[in-house]
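Q: I'm writing up a methods section and want to include an example of the input and output format. Could you take the sequence below and give the corresponding predicted structure tokens, formatted cleanly so I can copy it straight into the document?
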Amino acid sequence: MAKRKSVSIKDVARESQASLTTVSLVLNKRDWRISPATRERVLEAVQRLGYRPSRMAQGLQAQRSGFLAILVPQLRHAFADAYFGELISAIHDQARESGYKVILEVADETYLAASQHVEIFDRHVIDGMLCMGVTNRDVYLKDFEKGDRPVLLVNNYLPGLVLNSVRCDYVEAGRLAGHYLREKGHRHVGLIHGAQEVQTTHDLRRGFEDAIGLNAPLAAELLEDGLYTEEGGAEAAIRLVRRHPNLTALFAGNDKMAIGAIAGLKSIGLRVPEEISVVGCDDMHSAAFCDPPLTTVRTPIYELGRRACERLLDLVFNRAEAVQEVHPVSLTVRKSVAAPRA
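A: Here is the clean output for your methods example:
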């Protein structure tokens, strides 16, 4: 007599037309945010298929805390920053829909020296961690390389370390900006970049240099660090055009620096885009409302944050062994770019 095939939680999800997360929440009585109709559909599928959760799985579930941590860098007003705020909001929304709560942690010197990033796992305070704003100097992340604790990097990655990540394609973002400026006729361009210790800064520059058609890296005098801020972008733009008055366009590594660059250029009497063009990267909400409205590369930050949380939960619930995702970007054309003057 043939042995009857065991029924899995995936079978229940398929039968009830619900996600694995939803089925898991219903089975573990953490379904307060699940609609009565969906809950009933899952329970009917369980009954119909004769599904029985394994005792080992139930034991593991009992050890879960129902909390995720978001680890952010020690930055002034980090939680008020538009970029971090967008990601945190997205992660919170996805976590809440999945029956999870979120803890915010700051990776300052005291926190890391006490190994609290590891202790928070070992004391079963959290089930998983999302790391934002990481840099190549964050050596503490080596503690997670074994993969025995569910950790995922949000919108960055670290060469040389095998860590889970969900990020945007910043090489393509640079290419899109470079191609667009080249098509408009720009050959004398400058780059306002962010922190050099952030890996995606290098990806963005590489894509931009490939696309702008110089057949060589940008010279050092065409580069300025804008510190990822409006003030930094303004100062960087002024330094670049004073050093190279023949520049016809600037590309900034985020929208804050681009918006600052426009303000800085205006402050020294240059009109955007009539005398010099500016392209940003992010397509944050404010980009559409600056003067002129900013042409920028859209990196889907909110969607990325939700996806990062979703994939972290896949790691928590053993639905994935590793995660490496790179998400597409697109160009949003507004009014901050024009053809260079003859």
